[in-house]
Amino acid sequence: MTHETKSRGRFGIHGGQYIPETLMNAVIELEEAYNRFKDDPKFQQELETLFNDYAGRPSLLYFAEKMTKDLGGAKIYLKREDLNHTGAHKINNVLGQALLAKRMGKTRLIAETGAGQHGVATATAAALMGMECVVFMGEEDTKRQALNVYRMRLLGAEVIPVKSGTATLKDAVSEAMREWTSRISDTHYCLGSVMGPHPFPTIVRDFQAVISKEIKEQTLKKEGRLPDAVIACVGGGSNAIGSFYHFIEDESVRLIGCEAAGRGIDSAETAATIHTGRLGIFHGMKSYFCQDEYGQIAPVYSISAGLDYPGIGPEHAHLHDIGRAEYVPVTDDEAVNAFEYLARTEGIIPAIESAHAVAHAMKIAPTLGGDKIIVITLSGRGDKDCAAIARYRGEDIHE
Amino acid sequence: MSNIKKAFAKGKAFIPFITCGDPDLETTASAVRSAAENGADLIELGIPFSDPTAEGPVIQGANVRALRAGTTTDKIFDLVRDLRKDVSIPMVFMTYANVVFSYGAERFISTCQDIGMDGLILPDLPFEEKDEFAPLCKAHEVDLISLIAPTSEKRIAMIAREAKGFLYIVSSLGVTGVRSEIKTDLASIVASVRQSTDIPCAIGFGISTPEQAKKMASLSDGAIVGSAIIKLLEKYGKDAPRYIGEYVKSMKDAIVSIDKV
Fold first, then answer.
1. CB distance B174–A283 less than 8 Å?
2. Is A112 a catalytic residue?
3. pTM of the full structure
4. Where are the alpha helices (DSSP H) in chain A?
5. Which of A107, B109, B239, B260 is the most exposed place for a label (fewest CB within 10 A)?
6. How does pLDDT run across A28-78, given as a tens digit for each residue?
7. Which of A31, A81, A112, A140 is catalytic?
């Protein structure tokens, strides 16, 4: 007897739905609801109003003139997702999912968070829409990002520190999945990146795709043409896929994802999945993961809590396989230098995650001619990172 | 006949779960032998995984201890080779998809056949993804066990029709772990299963006392117990096999009493 493949949500060989049976009807229900609402003009209208009037979209595309002159190469634009309400791109996805969850009759949102940006965004949407909110955060990250923990609590969310495993983002995802299996009927798992089981990688991408839609319109308006490269940082990969999506069919646009190399891809202290990982099955998806020879998920490291994840979203894994996007490693040192550089040069303090993209742009811009245009997505603002960067530089400041 | 069916041939089955390598593989070997000698009908051997997303805190702890002790898939295969010299009851592996995938699915599943493992339970491999491993399992006569959850509803018939070995019925929402009460309407789930297949079904998740085991086995064909056994290993360490033997006997006696009624 032969079986047709029943698997859903594939990007090439990646993706799928590798989750406990207990959750299967929940993801099927989510997919059906999403398909029902994504083309519903009323839903889209409501979301657009939230984007524009609440989150502050469209976000600016800013010509970084001083940086361009200083680096002496390509013309550099910054896509200012850091100017969104709550200070990062995460709000785009969260407003979409919260609206969807509400339409599905859910009254409670749960979420994982690494740096705390997705947790803050989820807590914000829950407050706005009158929903209960519980955020799982690795205990290690609650220490690195204490300010965001306070913000979430201020917004009315419960923050649960996760002590299992490495007490970082991957453990927060595991714990949120466990929580979802125990309480499904009133609860939506508001996953924060383009990862996990289908339909999450597609839903999150669609809500974040507004970034590339705007970049395209804005560069056409300012320059009369498309950019030559779009650069974004990649952990799970939501701001990157959002920045890439509407350019995938425009082959002339280089798409560059910057992975967190931590202390270097030759060290054990790295989170560069494409460079050091291999194909595996984890957190509901087939993709690339940092793991040992027996498939045990590796403890990864990056200065950035938001990129400190041992896997990468399945669509990125596919874009890598087919060579449509490039993925490059950026070390802690390079990211911290870029963090400081952008602050001094343009008066903009980027999130340490986004600083990984800035660092790579600093490498390639001087090698490109002045007629080239590159866009860097600044996925978030860096206020949350100031204390940690000060500590990295040997200065012990207290918030 | 699938070797697993033998576990259910003499009446209701008692199925203990043991995480391999907690606290070490020698203790696992003694624990398995002790369980087999005291009436276990089938044994689930857990291959530890770094991130066991379907497990509660008790079995998560066992996974951590086993991995810290240096347990690997290859060492567990050696353990099974040794056990198969004298343990003849059916045994299945319980682990996560990445452990099988990363080892090389063909290499993993063919080794299962070579060393005498009868089945494989992967809680993160639902019906829609089972073709990842099902054709290989079929080729190597290893039963890929399907799970049914309290939320399965209309999916029950579809899953049951293609089920192999036995059906693992998850008693409750949530992760593994001891529960004081199981509220799911298991009788109607089992009734749905019976309409679609004649392979046996056993209930697991949350069972710890002889009374619970008796109740669950009376509703189905057997009871699966994990966390309660892991707690004995957590408490007694290397001395646990003796206590596991006593515990298995008390659970099996409770289940046997159903058959006598």
1. no
2. yes
3. 0.96
4. 21-37, 41-49, 65-71, 90-103, 117-129, 139-144, 146-154, 169-182, 200-208, 210-223, 238-244, 273-276, 314-321, 332-346, 352-364, 386-392
5. B260
6. 999 999 999 999 999 999 999 999 999 999 999 999 999 999 999 999 999
7. A112
Whether B51 and A297 lie within 8 Å, measured CB to CB:
yes
Which is more confident, A3 or B175? Answer: B175
Looking at domain B12-260, its CATH architecture is: Alpha-Beta Barrel (3.20)
Chain centroid offset of residue A187 CA = 22
Non-local (6+) Cβ contacts of B102 within 8 A are A278, A280, A291, A293, A294, A295
User: What is the set of domains in chain A, with CATH numbers?
Assistant: 10-50+90-204 (3.40.50.1100), 56-87+209-392 (3.40.50.1100)
Q: How far is B86 from chain A (nearest CA, A)?
A: 28
Separation CA A203–CA A195 (nearest Å): 10
Residues in a beta bridge with A381? A350
Query: What are the tens digits of pLDDT across the range A170-195?
Result: 999 999 999 999 999 999 999 999 99
Tell me the per-residue pLDDT of B81-105, one tens digit each, with 9 for 90 and over.
999 999 999 999 999 999 999 999 9
d(CA A366, CA A381): 25
Check CB contact under 8 Å for A294 and B72. yes
Kindly list the domain boundaries of chain B, sorted by start residue.
Answer: 12-260
Contact B12, B63 (CB under 8 A): no
Pairing of strands A158-162, A132-138: parallel
pLDDT confidence of residue A144 = 77
Cα nearest neighbour of B176 on chain A: A178
Closest residue to B101, CB basis, from A165, A281, A283: A281
The CB density around residue A347, as the number of other CB atoms within 10 Å, is 8
The pLDDT confidence band at residue A149, using thresholds 50, 70 and 90, is very high
pLDDT at A2 over 60: no
Strand A373-378 and strand A75-80: the pairing is: parallel
The residue behind tokens 């634009």 is: A77
- Residue the block writes with tokens 């207990």: A22
Taking CA–CA distances from A21, the nearest residue in chain B reads B126
Chain A positions with Cβ closer than 8 Å to B = 3, 5-8, 16-26, 164-165, 170-171, 174, 177-178, 181-184, 278-284, 289, 291, 293-297
Of A8, A18, A289, the CB nearest to B124: A18
Using alpha carbons only, give the angle A297, A300, A305 rounded to the nearest 5 degrees: 125
Nearest to B98 among A178, A183, A281 (CB): A281
| Residues above pLDDT 90, as percent of chain B | 93
Residue A24 has pLDDT above 50, yes or no: yes
ipTM reported for the complex, 2 dp: 0.96
